[in-house]
DNA sequence: AAAAAAC
């Protein structure tokens, strides 16, 4: 019954305490440059242990009921012939002492992940942050700032990645969502830069010394906040690049005295082209969400930034939770003698996120399904993803019209102020239901989010992994529900495989769905037009069979759903 | 495979 208390959550009540860390995070966001600060940014002691990010980071025991939660949630789709398979973890040079993801049966250990490293002369990982003091002569101030923010034990990507970057090596790091990638590059950058440029003479040259690129403004903003926390106590000039800051820098003529710029690609490109920004002294260039930054619409901009960083020894590093083979090749081509690290299994979400796929027939059935879902107790704030901006707007309106409280919307079609306000409401817990587009899918760290709903089916495996990765962060558990319609059938199989890989249960028929035609093309090499058409017909034919199965599955699901609902009601009442 | 995001 303890399980039900956890799952039924007693309605959509808002607990201020839960958002304490986010509230504090948000209150720091107005700073543009780090100022002298003596007090710690957070006071962990006031946070309930369960909600304290940093406790998880250091590996304190957490309440994890993942096994139970998963069972309950996946009973939504639990037909006969369920297949459950856990992929074997490969050989690796891991220093850690357990076997990959910890199962839910172990309640005391923090989730650790195997780390695979590839490359020449790979530096030893650090088992503690303090090791950085002796081995790399890291400034004590940086380490005390870490401590003050509650970081006491490095995660896998931090333990392996930080030494690599400190030894001035190029790096490609793949680590699951919510495992602390931001700190993995910020800490070594700030350590390598040494003193802030404002306190240095001319020996370090002038101009920007480090650049961090991110695909959305919201993410750049968040990285900036993280950076400010590490910069406390020293006069670092850390600039979140925007139209406003770009002109400020230009007007005040202080652009030569900047340590770190955090920006979206196009903003930087614009400034470079206007002749207002010189990147020839950049020593460190980081691509966060690298696969996103290197996909077709962004890659030209990113390459322009890379080309503008003409310092001979510029260190480059790419980070993401996902890195498809083609993009990885592109990334590796940019790097010099790189080391590649993979934490956990590539393209696999965290097992602490309990995932389920819910059949909703067609688009018209989605809203009623969601309203039914929201009529039951849920766990605010809830993050809902739609495929387009208009759909996000109208869904938010519909939900409000249907009496759902505190519904918010966030997409890139809104004004900057609207976007900023929406993020603030999310950070301080005023949003109970946030409807958003892909803009929120990557990197955003809302610590309170326990549930993600894919209202519209994600358009790629990567999108799926990043979207559901908005929950289950820093060792917490999370829940992800994905609606699928008949129209989504062609892409269902690839997502079903993701569930399978991360230890969720998946009905057999989903895995037996035909491969998307493009994969077939690849297998066969050059395919003639006629064959492609035939393949398409084949898929079309099996669609009918799939549909039959889906409907059958949906009936089973509904039956189970009723049972689950009854149990929940009696459990929480 | 396709929309979103970037200014």
TrEMBL record:
Annotated ranges, domain DEAD-box RNA helicase Q: 131-159
Helicase ATP-binding domain mapped to chain residues: 162-341
InterPro entries given in the database record: DDX52/Rok1_DEADc, DEAD/DEAH_box_helicase_dom, DEAD_box_RNA_helicase, Helicase_ATP-bd, Helicase_C-like, P-loop_NTPase, RNA-helicase_DEAD-box_CS, RNA_helicase_DEAD_Q_motif
Reactions it catalyzes: ATP + H2O = ADP + phosphate + H(+)
Gene Ontology biological process terms from the UniProt entry: maturation of SSU-rRNA
Domain of life assignment: Eukaryota
Subcellular location: Nucleus
SMART domains per the UniProt record, alphabetical: DEXDc, HELICc
Ranges of compositional bias, category Polar residues: 69-78
Record flagged with keyword Acetylation: no
GO cellular component: cytosol; nucleus
Chain ranges for the short sequence motif Q motif as given in the UniProt record: 131-159
An MF annotation (GO) of this entry: RNA helicase activity
Keywords in alphabetical order: ATP-binding, Helicase, Hydrolase, Nucleotide-binding, Nucleus, Ribosome biogenesis, RNA-binding
Pfam families tied to this protein: DEAD, Helicase_C
Main location (coarse class): nucleus
Helicase C-terminal domain location: 366-514
Region ranges (Disordered): 60-121, 547-573
Protein family according to the UniProt entry: Belongs to the DEAD box helicase family. DDX52/ROK1 subfamily.
Protein name: RNA helicase
Upper taxonomic lineage: Eukaryota, Fungi, Dikarya, Basidiomycota, Agaricomycotina
């Amino acid at each position: 019954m303890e399980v039900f208390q956890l799952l039924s959550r007693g309605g959509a009540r808002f607990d201020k305490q839960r958002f304490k860390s986010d509230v504090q995070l948000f209150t720091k966001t107005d700073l543009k440059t780090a100022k002298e600060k003596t007090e710690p940014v957070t006071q962990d002691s006031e946070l309930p242990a369960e909600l304290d990010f940093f406790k998880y980071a250091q590996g304190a025991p957490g309440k994890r009921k993942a096994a139970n939660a998963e069972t309950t949630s996946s009973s939504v789709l639990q037909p006969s012939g369920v297949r459950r398979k856990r992929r074997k973890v490969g050989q690796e040079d891991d220093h850690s002492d357990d076997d990959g993801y910890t199962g839910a049966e172990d309640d005391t250990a923090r989730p650790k992940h195997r780390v695979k490293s590839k490359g020449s002369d790979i530096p030893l990982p650090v088992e503690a942050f303090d090791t950085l003091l002796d081995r790399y002569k890291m400034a004590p101030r940086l380490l005390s700032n870490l401590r003050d923010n509650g970081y006491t034990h490095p995660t896998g990507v931090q333990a392996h990645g930080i030494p690599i970057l400190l030894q001035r090596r190029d790096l490609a790091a793949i680590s699951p969502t919510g495992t602390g990638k931001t700190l993995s590059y910020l800490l070594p950058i700030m350590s390598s830069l040494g003193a802030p440029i404002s306190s240095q003479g001319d020996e370090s040259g002038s101009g920007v010394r480090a650049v961090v690129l991110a695909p959305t403004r919201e993410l750049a903003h968040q990285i900036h906040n993280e950076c400010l926390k590490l910069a406390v106590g020293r006069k670092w000039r850390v600039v979140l690049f925007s139209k406003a800051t770009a002109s400020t820098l230009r007007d005040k003529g202080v652009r030569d005295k900047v340590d770190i710029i955090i920006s979206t690609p196009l903003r930087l490109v614009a400034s470079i082209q206007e002749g207002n920004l010189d990147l020839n002294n950049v020593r460190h260039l980081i691509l966060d969400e690298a696969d996103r930054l290197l996909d077709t619409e962004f890659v030209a901009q990113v390459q322009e930034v890379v080309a503008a960083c003409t310092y001979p020894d510029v260190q480059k590093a790419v980070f993401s939770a996902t890195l498809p083979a083609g993009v990885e090749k592109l990334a590796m081509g940019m790097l010099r003698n790189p080391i590649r690290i993979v934490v956990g299994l590539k393209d696999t979400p965290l097992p602490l996120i309990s995932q389920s796929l819910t059949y909703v027939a067609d688009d018209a059935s989605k809203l009623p399904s969601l309203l039914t879902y929201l009529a039951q107790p849920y766990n605010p704030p809830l993050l809902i993803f739609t495929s387009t901006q208009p759909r996000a707007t109208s869904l938010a309106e519909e939900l409000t019209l249907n009496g759902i409280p505190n519904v918010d919307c966030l997409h890139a079609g809104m004004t900057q102020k609207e976007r900023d306000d929406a993020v603030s409401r999310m950070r301080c817990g005023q949003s109970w239901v946030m409807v958003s587009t892909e803009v929120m899918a990557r990197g955003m760290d809302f610590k309170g989010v326990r549930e993600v709903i894919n209202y519209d089916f994600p358009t790629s495996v990567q999108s799926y992994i990043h979207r559901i990765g908005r929950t289950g962060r820093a060792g917490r558990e999370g829940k992800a529900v994905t609606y699928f319609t008949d129209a989504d059938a062609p892409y269902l199989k690839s997502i079903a495989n993701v569930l399978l890989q991360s230890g969720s249960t998946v009905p057999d028929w989903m895995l037996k769905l035909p491969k998307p035609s493009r994969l077939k093309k690849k297998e066969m090499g050059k395919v003639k037009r006629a064959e492609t058409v035939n393949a398409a017909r084949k898929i079309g034919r099996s669609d009918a069979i799939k549909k039959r199965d889906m409907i059958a599955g949906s009936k089973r699901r509904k039956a189970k759903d009723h049972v689950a609902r009854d149990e929940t009601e009696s459990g929480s009442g």
